[in-house]
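1st attempt posting a full record on here, be nice pls
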Amino acid sequence: MKNVGRYFAILMIAAAGHAWASAPMCGQPVLGAEFAARGDLAFPTFCAIPPAPKNTPSAKAFKSAVVSERLAGAVLVRDTGPETWTLGGTTDFLANARREAEPPPPMTPLGERDTAAFVAKAKARAAPPPKPRRR
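the predicted structure (as tokens):
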């Protein structure tokens, strides 16, 4: 007889859980008296909640991305720290830059011989246009 209360409590919890599970999930929330006067308020429904995204990375993938980012940051700090680079070899760099930036030599004007040779070569390659076809 002592356990009747426990069984009754378990039965009531199960009945309440069944009622809760069978309740419609997309119903409108109940408005209180303070909101009943205004009819222009639009309240969202439970069905308006978007589904959870499916293409999110897992916790392991997120942790691996964070760790790799931190390692890359540590390498960057190590490589750019004080006394990790010098300004040595600037004279070689300057010589290479000046050599690359040097303009080409000026073109010399062609003489009469060069012009005559060009004209003769062009005349030798030239051919008369084809005769027009009769239709």
